[in-house]
Amino acid sequence: MRTGDDDNWLELATARGGTIRVLKRAHPRARRLRLTVTATGAHLSYPNGTHPAQVFAFLRQHADWLERKLDELHLDEAPPPLTVGQPTLIPLRGESVRLGWAQGPYPRIEPHGDSLRVVLAESGARGRQRAQALLSGYLAAELRRDVARWLGPFVARLGAAPMALRVRPMSSLWGSLDARDRITLDLALALAPPPALRYVLAHELCHLKVRSHAPRFWAWVRELTPDYQDQRDWLREHGAALKAELTRLGGSARRTPA
Amino acid sequence: MFFRNLTLFRFSAETAAALDRLDAALDAQRLRPVGPLELATHGFVSPLGAEEGPLSIGIGACTLLTLGREDKLLPAAVINAELARRVRAVAAQRGQNVGGRERKRLKEAVLEELLPRAFARPSQLSAYLDRKNGWVVLDTSSRKAAEQALTALRQALDSFPALPLAPEQAPRLLMTDWLSRGKLPASLSLGDECELRDPASAQGAVVRCRRQALESEEVREHLKSGKQVAQLGLEFDGRLAFVLGEDLCLRKLRFLDVVQGELDSSARESAAAEIDARFALMTLELERLLDKLE
């Protein structure tokens, strides 16, 4: 193992002869060493002042776990970047949908049977940026349409309602409920099958009744979505790929979808 | 008493049935004056303005109520200045710096001394519940104020599962479609203002138009280049004018001359009768509008 060319990276040699690059970062509020794996790769955070040898040792100690997690996430099978004019396949509501391109004024997304068409006036980097913004808005609208159908019946059964419902890309969570009873859902759920989205919505709504993950909370979740365990398994297995796909489609945390 | 801004929530028929004990619930949460050491209080007050008046006014299926607040005016700059003065005095007296715990204690002492002398600013927020159609209509465009009012209502009633609007179509895309095609739903017509936002740029380019013909070529050019409508001025049936936002909040609501004329045609004997008449007219007009927007 050695420090990479860039001081922020560590390189770990694997037993199979490969190399894993890990992004390291000192964090002022960190109280212990922490190794995480997300769709963007492996990250290691540590408290300020930690000796580099201690950081290396920690990484070496968890090398097997890191290798296993990276294999599970299939990061080497990341989808190709979005290119204007080049048709591609994207997941939408759990199904693979063809994304086509057309030129014209009034940039928009047009559903065409089983496929989508992005109408743009420009190409290149600017065109890709606009296409990603349009796709984010389209995905948010699709997600809200599903949620609008389920929200009423769920609230009637629970006897509790959220204050607001927001949709935005989330880095690691699928949804959250804040102290002011506002639900936030991850935009990537628009790409998942509707039952998975339905489970996440029910999960966050159930937190209105029970704020923790106590058995009483799971009883409420089972009441609203009896097949919740299947959906949890599905999200655990395919979640990282969905989040990676959303990043490709423009679901960056800086942009607010429609 | 016509509402100027509308923030909307929905509730079900079952919830509407539970509103029978509303008057008693509001009475238990009546606004009391803010105490000497309190920062703020909130509670319900009479929509008629009288201290002992009824806390709700019902006309048909609609019930008007008013949430009152009293907030102490104590600017952070005043607290910090006084705290800094005391910290300097203590440090000079002891000849050593003041630690964090001591500073916290001094701040609490400053608050205890200044709070009883601070002005209490009263404010009110009106709202009405439409039991027939399941609407909570709040006279504010502030999301925070609306949430505070709804929380107060939930506390009063123990449970009041009213939902924020969850439209099946994205308002931004829908309004962009209306403006670019020039085709609006029947009874709605374009007003003279809009706000356009560019969703593609991280900085978020914004164009705001006031007193502008919205069907003009310059507005159309912005839409052609990809901007989307975040707020749109609309008129309903020649009777109401408002600005519809992508957050589904109605701002700058105005009742046009036709509606005002209907009100002026008969003189009222008392303030209560005047409020009754205005409330009845407003709820009737808004019922038609909300039905259309739904």
Give structural notes:
The complex is a heterodimer of chains A (258) and B (294). In chain A, 39% of the residues lie in helices and 26% in strands. In chain A, the strands form three sheets. In chain A, strands 1-2-3-5-4 form a five-stranded mixed sheet, covered by helices on one side. In chain A, strands 6-7-9-8 form a four-stranded mixed sheet. Chain A has a three-stranded mixed sheet with strand order 10-12-11, with helices on one face. In chain A, β1 (2-3) and β2 (9-13) form a beta hairpin. Chain A is globular. Chain A has helices at residues 52-61, 63-73, 124-158, 194-206, 215-224, 228-248; strands at residues 2-3, 9-13, 19-27, 34-38, 41-47, 88-92, 95-103, 108-112, 115-120, 164-168, 175-177, 182-186. In chain B, α3 crosses α4. The A-B interface holds A 105-107, 121, 126, 129-130, 132-134, 136-138, 140-141, 144-145, 147-149, 151-152, 155-156, 158-165, 180, 254-256, 258 and B 12, 14, 143, 147, 150-151, 159, 161-164, 166-173, 180, 199-202, 223-226, 228, 246.
Write the layout of secondary structure elements.
The complex is a heterodimer of chains A (258) and B (294).
Chain A: E1 2-3, E2 9-13, E3 19-27, E4 34-38, E5 41-47, H1 52-61, H2 63-73, E6 88-92, E7 95-103, E8 108-112, E9 115-120, H3 124-158, E10 164-168, E11 175-177, E12 182-186, H4 194-206, H5 215-224, H6 228-248
Parallel strand pairs in A: 3-5, 7-9, 10-12
Antiparallel strand pairs in A: 1-2, 2-3, 4-5, 6-7, 8-9, 11-12
Helix pairs in contact in A: 3-4, 4-5
Chain B: E1 7-10, H1 13-17, H2 22-28, E2 40-45, E3 56-59, E4 62-73, H3 76-94, H4 100-114, E5 119-130, E6 135-138, H5 143-157, E7 163-164, H6 171-181, E8 188-197, E9 206-209, H7 217-224, E10 228-236, E11 240-245, E12 250-255, H8 257-264, H9 271-293
Antiparallel strand pairs in B: 1-6, 1-7, 2-4, 3-4, 4-5, 5-6, 8-9, 8-10, 10-11, 11-12
Helix pairs in contact in B: 3-4
